[in-house]
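[step 3/7] fold_predict: job queued, chain A
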Amino acid sequence: MFGLGTPELVVILAIAFLLFGGKKLPEIGSGLGKAISSFKKGLGEVEDSGLDVSEMTKKLPGVREVAAVQEKIDKAKDISRVMTK
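[step 4/7] structure written:
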């Protein structure tokens, strides 16, 4: 799970306990659980709708610009690979 072992999780929980206190932690856990289940439910609805993810992402603002930057980065990586050989 994200490369986190038991000691790391214990430290994270201890810090959360110190920051939020014992009364607030169950509320935070409940809210986090609801958010994750809502996200999974929405993701399932998108997958079931039959829409292509690439079509959906093209409709998001700024996607074309990000794709253009990604292409430039890929070209720069290719050039650097050629130059280092």
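[step 5/7] annotate
The chain has four helices and no strands.
The longest helix spans residues 25-48.
exit 0
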